[in-house]
Amino acid sequence: MRTVRTFTVVPALPARLSALREIANNLWWSWNQEAREVFTRIDRDAWEASYHNPIAMFSRVSQKRLKELERDEGFLAHLDRVKQQLDAYMTARTWYHTKAGETKKTNIAYFCAEFGVHECLPIYSGGLGLLAGDHLKAASGLGVPLVGVGLFYHNGYFRQYLNHEGWQQEFLAGNDFYNLPCTLETKDGKPIVVDVDLPGRRVYAQIWRVQVGRVPLYLLDTRIDQNKIEDRAITDQLYGGDHEHRLKQEIVLGVGGIRALRALGIEPQVCHMNEGHSAFLAIERIRILIQEKGQHFHQALEAGIPGNIFTTHTPVPAGNEVFGIDLMDRYFGDWYGKLKIDRKAFLALGRQNPHDEAEPFSMTVLALRTAGHANGVSKLHGYVSRKMWAGVWPEVPVHEVPITSITNGVHIRSYVSDQLNELFVRYCGPRWSYDAAQHGIGWKGPENIPDAEIWRVHERRRSRLVTWARERVKEQLARSGAAPKEIEAADEILDPEALTIGFSRRFATYKRGTLLFSDPARLEAILSDKSRPVQILYAGKAHPKDSAGKQFIQQIYKMARDPRFKNRVIFLEDYDIVVARYLVQGVDVWLNNPRRPLEASGTSGMKAAANGALNCSILDGWWCEGYDGQNGWAIGRGEEYTDLEYQDEVESRALYDLLEKQIIPLFYDRTTDDLPREWIRRMKRAMNMAAGQFSTHRMVREYFEQFYAPSGEQWHAINDEGHKGARDLWDWKMALFQKWAQIRVVSVDSEQQEGLAVGSALKIRTKVHLGPVPPDSVQVQAYMGPLSDKGGVELGRALPLDYNGNGSAPGVYDYQGTIPCEMSGRFGFEIRVLPKNPRLTSPFIPSLITWG
């Protein structure tokens, strides 16, 4: 076989234009309008042809054009201005510098299987990746000391097109690393390479860096010569392959990710696992402490827990990765010895019931068992997650399961249209999006903008969407071999002045993409009204193995070709950031109709609202918190059903009613100046809500204040001084495990229990036998709340009882307290004993809970 020696050729930018390369290699430009305008000013056609990738665009621009720009004083002034903005951004004092004060710096590593930073870097599939990309952007803006860690997929996620029958087809398009805004991490001129162990071999990965403002994103790449051919394919495709392939990817992400950071000289105190794909990082952190610091497994586990954070993103079982025990034995059999534990103890880390030998290994459970903080991505999703994973804490009431919630947000400046951004800058100031996030619900920026100006901008965006959609459909038709007349007729689809509804998202069946077609005759009457025209644009991908999701797409495709709906219903192929941007910026109504409570969050609706679109949605995910009755519409009242066919019937009727009786009449209700004043008022309310409450600036601040900062403090407290805190905590726990069985509630006394008046208090006393357990190692609580139909305490709350000295016998102690009577009704209380230690991240430890 002949040897091919490689070399790289880069565009020859004149010295005076050298700042272009620095700007292009920092994706800060993706949310800075003036920086993007620099690139479009070079060559608009090349900018579009390169899919808004400045590095690739440079190779398309002639040296003649670059020479012209070198003499263009206007362009040079523009370039210098943007370079100064970037320099000022990178060196400015940030929110973090003010917030962190004199506390110890905490380095945070944010792990995710996908990152959707910009369309020119196609290593994302949907909401999870876009959320991760927005997280990095907001961390950059706030100055949070965070780095991202992921995988560099050579083929990204699959591309989509529909065949002549409307069936989804998939193909892969390779990523050219050397024409992307990324750089290979090197040392002494050679790539930095890390390795992970797989059965019978080592797999190696090099590291690429993508700069996202102040935040570096490190991406591991196994397609290098040191690997066997099959191992080079590990980072070929996002969510591709079978379970074994996914397991290899997740080992490279979690284990390899930690090793990559160490190779780069980065020692994170806090690791944020964004979904369970990266949970093996917790195992690697434990291994390091065992093999390098001489700790035993349980000490290392205690040392690692405070510095691990886990965010779960879906209640759908398919979204929570599990692996068969045969695979785990094959890939982690060697790890049992490295961690100095037996097979059962290792597998227990990934099982809700550690004693169930038939239970597979769950990445979500592994993350929950090894994280000091865990959360869902909306208030409702937090509640659903507590119910879903209550088995990890079998003795804890569901509502006390230690999974909280931080509601997702979106990076506002990345999705608001340039024209709308200009309005906000003019009337609210250049820092409008930051001010909105700072003031939250109290921000009233949109009220400053005249109705006529908002409506004029919105109509231009809708018209631009229609023009773009026509061109997109013509491309789709040409690709499918349509006749020239049919392609030409695409110039007549859609109406730039009609009420436009958008529905775009992953085509999972629970999202019910075809709900609007439940009654075709009724929908026909809505869409065929020439005096009040309505049109619907669809986009989205089904997972390649989801035949039911593909059938939904096929149904919409056929409806779009039905003469009753032709030109009024459009399906746009190959949903990605570009398609999403046109839709959220141009539609009037954003439709979302999942089966509650399966939509964990749903950030696309936030992006649409930030542009003034009004959401019409099931009360699920974020919309439970965002909907206020005046900023959109709710389908139903938050009901949940067991009969799914009945649910579809009820909620499709509710959707038709909203369209016919509220949405369409309101849109076409115009004043004498042809403005829909009430509609615009709701638009302003939606924009205010999105920018004020649902930005990633707010979200990342909450992560920092609730998780990152406390985790950093806990990590330092338990790991400083040679990990003394971890050893002490495990020794303390071991003593409790040995003695806890002796703890029991001896007696409970209370005063009058009937006829208590609201505002009074019930005094209680209890004797607790602790035996050899010291009183300062426990907390005794009264767990009180309303009585359920079955006689138990429902949705109770814990009230601490005060230690009152030794009781009547050795090892027995008295406790007392009061229960406030705040409302009328039938209540109950129980006594429980929990462990207490300032180093615990949660008091709920299986086997260390005693109920009276």
Report on the architecture of this protein:
This protein has 852 residues and is of the alpha/beta class. The protein has four domains: 15-91, no CATH class; 106-408, Glycogen Phosphorylase B (Rossmann fold); 418-694, Glycogen Phosphorylase B (Rossmann fold, 3-Layer(aba) Sandwich), CATH 3.40.50.2000; 743-851, Immunoglobulin-like, CATH 2.60.40. Helix content is 41%, strand content 18%. The protein is built from 29 helices and 30 strands. Strands 1, 2, 5, 8, 9, 10, 11, 12, 15 and 16 form a ten-stranded mixed sheet that branches. The protein has a six-stranded parallel sheet with strand order 19-18-17-20-21-22, sandwiched between helices. Strands 23-24-28-27 form a four-stranded antiparallel sheet, with no helix packed on it. Helix 8 links the parallel strand 1 and strand 2. Helix 24 (577-586) packs across helix 25 (604-610). The radius of gyration is 29 Å and the shape is globular. The N and C termini lie far apart (76 Å). 45% of the residues are buried. The model has no long low-confidence stretch (mean pLDDT 94).
